[in-house]
């Protein structure tokens, strides 16, 4: 079990953690709005918050997925990027997003908006945005091009991080799909989330997803 402290009467987690050799302290609780998380923000958190503000301004539906979710919840590991699905946009709406993003970020794939849209997003590839002065960290965005990706976008959850709203994939989905990916890092992400959030998880949903991905055996071997 990962080291953390739970105050059950207040439904409050308190957990120390280290990110990029810095010591942080996290408080975490759940209410009707979603999960409320208070912690000293690291660089990846600040990058995510600033990027999402652009999407919120344009009312673009999105969901943050993959490794950053476990980092957001206090897992101590390095990451250079954040992965995200955004709703499929028309080229006209994408141009609005492109223009807003270029006020603060740069696209690492191309400087041409039409190429980014037609040669990357529309064919199922992702594009990456970073701050102008450094390629790291970066946000990798793509359209939801599979039934699983569309389900993730429709069934996301809300995290209020120091009063900033971030929308992330369901934790049950995170655990199950990390086992599909199967690397040591992914399995450790899955175990971290499971151990930390076991009292909050929808176990029926988790096991439905594990059966869908045919990963029950891996779950019992690595997570339980």
Mean pLDDT: 89
User: What is the helix fraction of residues, given as a range?
Assistant: 40-55%
Shape, principal axes of CA atoms? globular
> Spatial order of the strands in the main sheet?
1-2-3-4-10-11
Derived from helix and strand composition plus strand pairing, the structural class reads alpha+beta
Radius of gyration: 18 Å
**Order of helix and strand elements from N to C terminus:** EEEEHEHEHEHEEHEEHHHH
Counting copies of identical and different chains, the oligomeric state is single chain
Low-confidence stretches: 1-10
Characterize the largest beta sheet: strand count, sense, and whether it forms a barrel. Answer: 6 strands, mixed
Question: How much strand content do the residues show?
Answer: 25-35%
How many separate helices? 9
């Amino acid at each position: 079990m990962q080291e953390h402290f739970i105050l059950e009467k207040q439904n409050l987690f308190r957990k120390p953690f280290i990110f990029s050799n810095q010591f942080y302290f996290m408080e975490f609780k759940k209410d009707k709005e979603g999960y409320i998380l208070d912690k000293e923000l690291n660089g990846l958190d600040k990058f995510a918050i600033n990027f999402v503000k652009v999407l919120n301004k344009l009312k673009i539906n999105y969901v943050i997925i993959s490794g950053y979710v476990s980092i957001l919840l206090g897992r101590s590991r390095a990451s250079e990027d954040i992965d995200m699905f955004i709703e499929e946009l028309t080229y006209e709406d994408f141009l609005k997003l492109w223009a807003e993003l270029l006020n603060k970020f740069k696209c690492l794939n191309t400087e041409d908006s039409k190429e980014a849209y037609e040669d990357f997003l529309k064919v199922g590839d992702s594009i990456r945005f970073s701050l102008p002065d450094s390629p790291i960290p970066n946000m990798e965005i793509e359209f939801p091009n599979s039934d699983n990706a569309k389900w993730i976008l429709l069934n996301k959850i809300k995290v209020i991080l120091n009063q900033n709203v971030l929308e992330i994939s369901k934790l049950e989905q995170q655990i199950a799909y990390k086992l599909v990916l199967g690397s040591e890092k992914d399995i450790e992400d899955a175990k971290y989330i499971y151990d930390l959030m076991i009292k909050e998880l929808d176990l029926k949903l988790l096991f439905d997803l594990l059966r869908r991905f045919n990963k029950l055996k891996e779950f019992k071997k690595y997570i339980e």
